[in-house]
Structure formats: structure tokens, C-alpha cells
Write a structure and sequence with these properties.
Structural class of chain A: alpha+beta
Structural class of chain B: mainly alpha
Number of strands of chain B: 0
Order of helices and strands of chain B: HHHHHHHHHHHHHHHHHHH
Largest sheet of chain B: none
Strand content of chain B: under 5%
Oligomer: heterodimer
Number of strands of chain A: 11
Strand order of the largest sheet of chain A: 8-1-10-9
Largest interface: A-B, 45 and 46 residues
Order of helices and strands of chain A: EHHEEHEEHEEHHEHEEE
Distance between the termini of chain B: 56 Å
Helix content of chain A: 10-25%
Shape of chain B: globular
Shape of chain A: globular
Radius of gyration of chain A: 18 Å
Chain lengths: 232, 443
């Protein structure tokens, strides 16, 4: 069984936010108006957060924007606390959210140390004609439930269906999330972390590799690459 | 009317008729209740967008009030059980007033959680798809156990009084008849009742302790800064008993004034509860000091960020008000007998404690969420009118339900006061004698 994971190379990332937009469009994430955004109500499965790096020796500390999707932790703090099992870890490494089960108590959102879980404060709305561009592969979430990055899980299902229809095994490169596919700087890669020959596994062994808030024991499946020291 | 019947007439008086004060309260509570209902309907229609909540402050007043109300519930049952078991004779006129608080306020505590749900229509999923790894489920289990046990614990000592009412108010037989369980006061009935009361008094203590421990674990089981603390269980229990005793004192002061029960609820009762409140205030300070010193000395940056937001950042005003209201004012008032042995002294201290403990709950819930580990553009949390008016409605309805209880049942336990008069005086002197060395006989 694969353990899907992502590698983000911060030395390549330009902070252009193309991944953010791609994610928004791919996953039917409703656009927030300026009012909601100012109030901290904008939903975004992939945010760029400013973090400080103490670059290579001798250089001055710099602020860089870091793409922050759900880390799909190996030991997620969010799934444990859900009173109704609406969020679960599956055997392929995905931390999934079950919208029809979620009661909207937001315990998972408060328990997540990365603050990457979003809540539907209001019913999602798309101004015409935006609603006609909604993806049929991703369900639109109702008001009052929690949602989060799925690693574009629907793309895996589609790729699997296609492979099955053609009677052949799934190739790793057939499944990439929208953000990875879009990144113009080629800073993101995606694949099976358990396959030692995969690109993500190779990059994960790099000396530049680190994971966010690793000291909490969450075992994230998102790996960052950067020279120098990193911290929040 | 026989002598015994005429005794304690004052305790029956509030049940016979409702005065102007009661109707005034009914109007005020009804108004605030309707405003709360309107706020709730607005929230049902438009979702939690009508609150001031946001990312990352996903929890706010509703959860604060959940902790606050469940905390107050520790007043009654726990204090009453401890006083009963330790055979503190001064407890007799105050136990019931305390126990009612517990039973009523628990409903409002649970109501706060329902208000907080994004999908209240799916509340039953908590039972249908229960995940017992979630501390929220531990809460559901212990709060329902507590509600059941404390309702029973309130009801048992009510039975002899209900029998008195049954014989006195034939017009309300439909209510008192079935509830009195054919109580006639035979020695056998008394034996069974007393046995049941003492069993329940023992049973409710660990349940009560578990309730606020588990409430604290909702926070402490996460890894979030200044939530993830091993001290939280006992810290919450201490805070709960603290705010609970203050609630008893306030309820007693109101009942005493409204129903002219000065002969029953005497300064000595306020003095003794004031002493308990003083002890809890010192304990609260000890726990708070230990918690904050450990956090500061350890210096973990993510914890320190929350610490600084409380002590000198945007929550500093609330924080220092809390310290003054929970520690400085109550200790100053309660340390001296001159202010402690008065009703006003303990009442002012209790109001201060309630304000302080409300702030304490708020300062536990909100700052940890306001300063997340990873930097993000966070809008400050400002509660909306919907959240405030639902709080006002809950407080008003609680007070009103409490008043209704005093109109249906005696708020001072009549049979227990009588028992104290008839039996305990002799019993206590026998008890004291038994502590002393037996008198040596002359050789």
C-alpha cells in the first residue's frame, strides 16, 4: 500500500500563489469576499504563511512565504478527538473528512497544531456564472462542517478507474494533486513516500529535508526542503 | 393547628403565593429568554457566521460558557455531599439551595455545546457514531452520569418535605402525591432514606470530580500551547468548586432577602461558606501561579507566545482583572472576620469571584487559539450580539427556573432543620464527649 506524500522545495518556491489558486478551483472552494476575508473567515485548503529562515551561515534572516497544505500526519492529532469519527486516517496516508458525518463541533480544528482545517461559517456561494465552473468530481460542502486539503483524493480515484478500465496497474505519475501539477517553479513533487525509488522518497532523504513541528510527534507526510535553519 | 405544624411557617410561605418580585423576574427572564430565542433562530438560519468566531479562534463564548456553567454546577452536589458526610451540622439550611443549582445549571452547560455545533441537527451522531477516543465523548458520559446522580441526590432529601406539602396543599396533590412515594415518616422509611442519601453522597463525589476533570481534558489532551498541561484536571476542579461556592452564597443571599429567611440563613452560614471560599481562592492562586511560573520558566516559544498575550499582550487587561477578582478582592474581604461574617462581605466577594472565574474560563479558551504555532493572519475575536444575548438568556432562565423551584418546593429543607433541632443537639454533644478521654474513676 502506498503512503502518499508531498515534497515542497522552499529554495525553488517563488511565492507566486499559483498553487493556492489551482487548489481553490480544483476543489470547489468558495471564494470569500473582502469582508469575510478580513474577519478570518476565508476558506483555503492551501495557505502561504510567512516564516523566518536563518539562511546559510552569514546571510541575514529572511521572511519567506511557505505553502501550507494539510500535513496528512502519520499520527494526526485531529482524528483522535473527533467525537463522531468524521475525520479518519486511512491506510494510504490520507487524513480524510466525511462531510455528511461532521457535526461541526470544531474540535479537530482546534486540535490541529498547523491550523489547516477550515470551517464553513456560511453556506458556500458562487456568483454567476462561477457556479457553472464547479468541478463535478468534488462535492460542495454544506454549511456548518469542517473541510480540509484532501491531497486531491478524487484524482487518485479517477486515475485508478482509468487504469482499471484499461486493465493495467496504476503508474505513480498518473496521480498528482492540482497544486503540484500547477507549480510553475517545479517546487512541489508528489508520490509514494514508501517507494524508495520514487522522487519524493529520494528528495525526502536530502540533507535539506525537514518537516514542520516535527517535535510534536505528528509525523507529517509533507516534507519541506530548504538550506539553512527554519522556524516559525 | 398543632405546634409542630406552625413551626417553620416561613419556609412554607413562598410556596403558598407568588409575590411581586416573582412576576417581575418572570417578565425580565421572559424578555431576555425571547431575545435569546430570536438570537438562536438567527443563528439557525444563517449559521455560525453570525458569531464573532473565525480562523484560528474556532471556539469562543459558547465553549467558555460551557466550562463556566459546568463549573458552577460543582457548587451544589459536591459541597452538600462533603458537608453531609463530614456531619457539618450547619449544612442543614443550605444543602438544598446548593443542590438545585447543580441540577439546573447542568442543562445550560450542555445547551452551550449544542449552540456551538455547526450542525445541531446532527447532535445525535454523538451517540450513534460515538468515538470514545475523543475527550468530548468522555464529557458526554460523565456529564450525563452527573446529571442523573445529582437529580437523584436532590430528590431523595426532598421526599419528606414533599409529603409535608402533600398534606398541606390538597390542590397540588397531582404533583406532590406521586412524588412523595407514600412517605409517612415511619422509622423504617427514615432508615432507608438516610441510607440512600449517604450512599448517594459518597457516589456523587467521584462523579463530580470526574466531570470537571474531563472538561479540562477537552483542552489538555490536545498539544496546543497552554492547554496541554497535566495540572489542568485538578486546576479545573478547584476553579469549579471556587465558582460553585460563590454561586451558593449568591443564591442564599437572594433567597434570604426575598423570602425573609434571616432566621434560617444566618451570618454564621455565610461566614462558614466564606471560609471555604477563602480556602478555594488561595488554592486557585496556588494552581494559577504554578501553571504560569512553569510555562514562563520553561520558555517553550509557542507556550511563551500565549503566556505573553495574557500577561502583557492583548488579553492583559482581562488577565490582571481576573487576578484581582479571583484573588485580591476575595482574600481581602474574607480574611477578616469582620467582613466575612456579614452577608454583604461574602456577597461582594462572591460576585467578584464569579466575574473572575468567567474571565479565567475565557482566558483559557481564547488566547491559546489566538496565537497559533504557525504564523497566520489572525483577526481578533470579538463576540457578537448573538453570543452575548444567548448568554444573557441562559443566565436569566437559570435564575427564573431556580425561582420556580422555590415556588414548588421549600428551598430550605424543612425536615432536616427539624431533625437538627430535635436530634442533633444531643447527638453532637454525645459525639464531642466521645472525642474526650473517659473520665478517670477515683481509685
Amino acid at each position: 500500500m502506498a503512503r502518499w506524500g508531498m515534497v515542497i522545495d522552499l529554495d525553488r518556491c517563488t511565492g507566486c500563489q499559483a498553487c493556492v489558486v489551482a487548489c481553490q478551483v480544483e476543489n470547489n472552494v468558495p471564494p470569500a469576499g473582502p469582508v469575510d476575508a478580513a474577519r478570518g473567515r476565508a476558506i483555503s485548503w492551501l495557505r502561504l504563511v510567512p516564516m523566518q529562515s536563518t539562511g546559510p551561515r552569514g546571510t541575514r534572516p529572511a521572511l519567506q512565504l511557505v505553502p501550507l497544505p494539510c500535513q496528512h500526519c502519520g499520527r494526526p492529532p485531529c482524528t483522535r478527538v473527533c467525537p463522531v469519527r468524521a475525520t479518519q486516517k486511512d491506510e494510504e496516508g490520507f487524513v480524510a473528512q466525511i462531510y455528511p458525518r461532521c457535526i461541526g463541533c470544531r474540535y479537530c480544528t482546534t486540535a490541529c497544531p498547523y491550523t489547516v482545517r477550515d470551517f464553513n461559517w456560511r453556506r458556500p456561494e458562487w456568483a454567476a456564472p462561477l457556479e457553472r465552473s464547479l468541478s463535478p468530481d468534488v462535492s460542495v460542502r454544506p454549511r456548518g462542517v469542517v473541510e480540509k486539503c484532501t491531497f486531491c483524493h478524487h484524482r487518485l480515484q479517477l486515475a485508478r478507474d482509468r487504469a482499471r478500465a484499461e486493465g493495467r496497474p496504476l503508474q505513480d505519475e498518473e496521480y498528482v494533486p492540482a497544486c503540484v501539477q500547477t507549480c510553475p517553479a517545479l517546487a512541489m513533487s508528489f508520490g509514494d513516500l514508501d517507494d524508495p525509488r520514487s522522487e519524493v522518497a529520494r528528495l525526502g532523504r536530502s540533507q535539506r529535508a525537514f518537516r514542520l513541528l516535527e517535535e510534536l510527534g505528528t509525523e507529517p507526510n509533507v516534507i519541506y526542503l530548504a538550506k539553512g535553519e527554519w522556524g516559525a | 393547628m398543632p405546634e409542630l405544624e406552625r413551626q417553620d411557617e416561613r419556609l412554607f410561605a413562598p410556596i403558598a403565593r407568588a409575590g411581586r418580585g416573582f412576576w417581575l423576574l418572570a417578565v425580565v427572564a421572559g424578555g431576555l429568554g425571547l431575545a435569546g430565542l430570536a438570537a438562536w433562530l438567527v443563528q439557525l438560519r444563517r449559521g455560525l457566521a453570525v458569531t464573532g468566531l473565525n480562523v484560528p479562534v474556532y471556539w469562543g463564548l459558547y465553549i467558555t460558557h460551557f466550562v463556566f456553567f459546568i463549573g458552577i454546577s460543582h457548587a451544589g452536589t459536591l459541597i452538600s455531599a462533603i458537608l453531609r458526610l463530614s456531619r457539618a451540622e450547619w449544612r442543614r439550611p443550605i444543602t438544598r439551595a446548593a443542590e438545585v443549582i447543580t441540577v439546573l445549571v447542568l442543562f445550560f452547560g450542555m445547551g452551550c455545546v449544542l449552540l456551538d455545533l455547526g450542525r445541531p441537527d446532527r447532535a445525535a451522531f454523538v451517540l450513534l457514531h460515538a468515538n470514545f477516543r475523543s475527550p468530548l465523548l468522555w464529557d458526554v458520559a460523565s456529564v450525563t452520569t452527573y446529571l442523573t446522580a445529582s437529580t437523584l441526590y436532590l430528590y431523595l432529601p426532598l421526599i419528606p418535605d414533599i409529603a409535608l406539602l402533600r398534606d398541606r396543599f390538597p390542590g397540588r396533590r397531582w404533583l406532590y402525591g406521586p412524588l412523595s412515594l407514600r412517605w409517612t415518616g415511619t422509622p423504617r422509611q427514615h432508615r432507608i432514606l438516610e441510607r440512600a442519601i449517604s450512599v448517594m453522597a459518597i457516589v456523587v463525589i467521584p462523579i463530580a470530580v470526574s466531570v470537571h476533570t474531563v472538561v479540562s481534558w477537552v483542552f489538555a489532551m490536545t498539544v496546543q500551547p497552554m492547554w496541554h498541561s497535566t495540572i489542568f484536571g485538578p486546576y479545573f476542579v478547584v476553579g469549579a468548586i471556587f465558582s460553585g461556592i460563590a454561586a451558593i452564597i449568591l443564591a442564599m443571599a437572594v433567597v434570604r432577602r426575598a423570602y425573609r429567611l434571616e432566621a434560617y440563613l444566618k451570618p454564621v452560614h455565610f461566614n462558614n461558606l466564606g471560609l471555604l471560599l477563602l480556602v478555594m481562592s488561595l488554592l486557585w492562586f496556588y494552581f494559577t501561579f504554578a501553571e504560569f511560573l512553569t510555562t514562563w520558566y520553561g520558555g517553550d516559544p509557542s507556550h511563551l507566545a500565549v503566556f505573553v498575550s495574557k500577561t502583557e499582550g492583548r488579553f492583559a487587561l482581562s488577565f490582571w482583572t481576573m487576578v484581582i477578582a479571583c484573588f485580591v478582592i476575595p482574600v481581602a474581604l474574607l480574611a477578616s472576620r469582620r467582613t466575612r461574617a456579614t452577608v454583604w462581605g461574602t456577597v461582594v466577594a462572591s460576585i467578584s469571584v464569579e466575574v473572575g472565574m468567567w474571565l479565567e474560563r475565557f482566558l483559557i479558551v481564547v488566547p491559546s487559539l489566538s496565537v497559533p504555532r504557525l504564523p497566520m493572519t489572525a483577526a481578533p475575536y470579538a463576540p457578537s450580539w448573538v453570543e452575548w444575548s444567548l448568554f444573557a438568556a441562559f443566565v436569566a432562565l437559570f435564575v427564573f427556573l431556580y425561582a420556580i423551584f422555590t415556588k414548588l418546593f421549600p428551598i430550605v429543607s424543612i425536615w432536616e432543620v427539624r431533625e437538627g433541632r430535635e436530634r442533633s443537639v444531643a447527638e453532637v454533644s454525645r459525639r464531642v464527649e466521645s472525642y474526650l478521654p473517659a473520665e478517670e474513676r477515683a481509685p
